[in-house]
Design brief:
With 248 residues, the protein is of the alpha/beta class. The protein has helices spanning 19-31, 59-68, 83-89, 106-115, 133-145, 173-180, 197-209, 236-247, and strands spanning 8-12, 36-38, 75-79, 93-98, 122-126, 153-157, 160-161, 169-170, 185-188, 214-218. The protein is built from eight helices and ten strands. The structure holds phosphoenolpyruvate and manganese (II) ion (MN). Manganese (II) ion binds at residues 14, 192, 218, 228-229.
């Protein structure tokens, strides 16, 4: 691996859709000795009529995956948007994700520590798309005061709203580099940070070049058929090429 022990690379679809959808991504990670798979059961969506995730029903797919991959071989990354969802995902997730919309959901942040055990490698805290670095670091302190060990907190820069970017979002590397001075691991999410598949790999490379600690990237076996965030999904082949050239 070109990375050190401290790197965190997460790949997978925006939302868990089916065993058939997730299996090729799981196999790809295994082929390259990577472990962290996005398996999002709960999706915070702007439009209430949009797919909200499989929810509790998605646990069945995680159970199926566990028949083929042990917890050491494949680690699930799941977002929780509420304390109820935390309880559902905590037994399955190795990485508990708190999304941009919940960065300042203080009761949720305080509750994460109640679910943390040795089975959890990290809590991933995404920056809200209009939050300052200081607010991000204060949110991280809520996690720590709630019982999450500091070295398990990873910050994820996922882009801010932009008045000028053609995609409406801008991945803020300055914020990521500033946050890194705090001593937390900081990764970037070039998928939500660009909202466009054509920019995902270039931004991913830029983040690594800047010395940031890893990536979260959305991919799908058939990107255009993604039920959510199809425009930013990249193919499994594109991920594989990136992994071979830049990670392993
Ligand atoms: C996600 O990573 O699934 C997600 C919803 O991203 P964000 O919270 O950054 O919008
Ligand atoms: Mn998404």
């Amino acid at each position: 691996m070109k990375d050190n022990q401290q790197s965190l690379y997460i790949f997978g679809p925006c939302a868990l859709e089916s065993l058939e959808q997730i299996s090729p991504v799981a196999a790809l990670l295994k082929r390259h000795g990577l472990k962290y798979l996005r398996t999002q059961l709960f999706k915070p969506r702007t439009n209430p009529d949009s797919f909200q995730g499989l929810g509790d029903a998605g646990v069945k797919i995680l159970e199926e995956l566990r028949k083929s991959y042990s917890r050491d071989e494949l680690k699930f990354v799941c977002e929780a948007c509420s304390t109820d969802q935390l309880a559902t995902i905590a037994p399955w997730a190795s990485v508990i994700q708190i999304g941009a919309r919940n960065m300042q959901n203080f009761e949720l942040l305080k509750a994460v520590g109640k679910h943390i055990s040795d089975d959890h490698d990290y809590v991933l805290l995404k920056r809200g798309f209009a939050n300052t670095v200081d607010e991000w670091l204060e949110a991280a302190r809520y996690l720590i005061q709630g019982g999450v060990p500091k070295d398990k907190v990873v910050l994820c820069e996922r882009g801010t709203r932009s008045l000028t970017s053609p995609t409406g979002v801008q991945l803020d590397f300055i914020a990521a580099m500033e946050a890194k001075k705090s001593g937390f691991m900081v990764i970037t999410d070039p998928s939500h940070g660009s909202k466009s598949s054509e920019f995902v790999i270039p931004l991913a490379k830029a983040g690594l070049q800047l010395g940031l600690d890893g990536l979260m990237i959305e991919c799908h076996p058939r990107p255009s058929e993604s039920v959510s965030d199809a425009k930013q999904a990249i193919s499994i082949e594109a991920v594989e090429e990136f992994i071979k050239n830049h990670i392993v």
